[in-house]
């Protein structure tokens, strides 16, 4: 399977919405952001691409989102012809089908987060999503690093940046998390955070 590695600087785009899709991209390092612009000009963050993810799967031969790097990143580009002609590269075709199924699952997770009523539940669900996907264990601590800013999180979960910040403050007050620094969250009580994410627990205040 021929592939071409590409280095990306923060803010650099790989593709734009409606571009012809000639390649798909596997994230080797760093974090990508996939977005769409609504008719009224508002941005919706559709997904984040983490190491191991494949992004850029086409629909009718075109990209359905735009994609840029949040951090310095490396991706490998592979032609997406095997989606239409599986016999040309059966191994790559199987890889792309698996990536498509993963994308459906991640979108389902996103719908669950977006559909929650409480802001605290949305933010908790987002943190659990990151914990499960890219969380780190260090000295019996569960770390979640946030390469994205509060606006990115807000545009992903359907809140304002201010509400995201207030919800994080609320979760800190409830001793579910604490901040090691503005971009590193220590999950102090994963079970309670997960229960809140699943809507099984109420907090004293509601910031929605």
Q: Specify Rg, calculated over alpha carbons.
A: 18 Å
How would you write the strand order of the largest sheet? Answer: 1-8-3-6
Mean pLDDT over the residues? 85
Q: Biggest β-sheet, characterized?
A: 4 strands, antiparallel
What is the name of the CATH topology of the largest domain?
Jelly Rolls
- Distinct helical segment count: 5
**What is the annotated CATH architecture of the largest domain?**
Sandwich
Shape category: globular
Question: What is the total tally of β strands?
Answer: 12
User: What's the N-to-C terminus distance?
Assistant: 48 Å
Task: Kindly report the name of the CATH homologous superfamily of the largest domain.
Answer: Jelly Rolls
- Give the DSSP E fraction (strand runs of 2 or more residues): 25-35%
* Element-level helix/strand string: EEEEEEEEHHEEHHEEH
Keywords: DNA-binding, Transcription, Transcription regulation
GO molecular function, one term: DNA binding
Domain Cyclic nucleotide-binding: 1-56
Domain HTH crp-type: 117-191
Written overview of the protein:
This is Transcriptional activatory protein AadR. GO terms for molecular function: DNA binding; DNA-binding transcription factor activity. Residues 1-56 form the Cyclic nucleotide-binding domain. Keywords: DNA-binding, Transcription, Transcription regulation. Pfam families: cNMP_binding, HTH_Crp_2. The chain is an alpha+beta fold. The protein has two domains: 4-113, Jelly Rolls, CATH 2.60.120; 117-197, Orthogonal Bundle (Arc Repressor Mutant, subunit A). Helices cover 34% and strands 28% of the residues. It has five helices and twelve strands. The chain has helices spanning 90-114, 119-134, 150-157, 161-173, 190-197, and strands at 4-8, 13-15, 23-29, 32-37, 43-49, 54-55, 66-69, 73-79, 136-138, 141-145, 177-181, 184-187. The strands form three sheets. It has a four-stranded antiparallel sheet with strand order 1-8-3-6, with no helix packed on it. Strands 2-7-4-5 form a four-stranded antiparallel sheet. The model is unreliable at 201-208 (pLDDT under 50).
């Amino acid at each position: 399977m021929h592939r071409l590695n590409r280095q990306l600087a923060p803010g650099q785009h790989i593709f734009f919405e409606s571009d012809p899709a000639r390649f798909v991209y596997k994230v080797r390092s760093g974090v990508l952001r996939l977005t769409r612009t609504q008719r009224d000009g508002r941005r919706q963050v559709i997904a984040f691409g983490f190491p191991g993810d494949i992004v850029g799967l086409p629909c009718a031969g075109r990209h359905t989102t735009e994609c840029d790097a949040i951090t310095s990143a490396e991706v490998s580009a592979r032609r997406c012809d095997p989606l239409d002609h599986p016999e040309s590269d059966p191994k790559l075709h199987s890889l792309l089908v698996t990536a498509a199924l993963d994308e459906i699952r991640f979108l389902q997770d996103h719908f669950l987060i977006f559909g929650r009523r409480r802001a605290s539940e949305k933010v908790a669900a987002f943190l659990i999503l990151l914990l499960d996907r890219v969380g780190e264990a260090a000295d019996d601590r569960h770390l979640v690093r946030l390469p994205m800013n509060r606006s990115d999180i807000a545009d992903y979960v359907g809140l304002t940046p201010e509400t995201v910040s207030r919800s994080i403050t609320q979760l800190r007050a409830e001793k579910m998390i604490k901040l090691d620094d503005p971009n590193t969250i220590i999950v102090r009580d994963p079970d309670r955070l997960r229960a809140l994410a699943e809507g099984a627990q109420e907090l004293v205040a509601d910031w929605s």
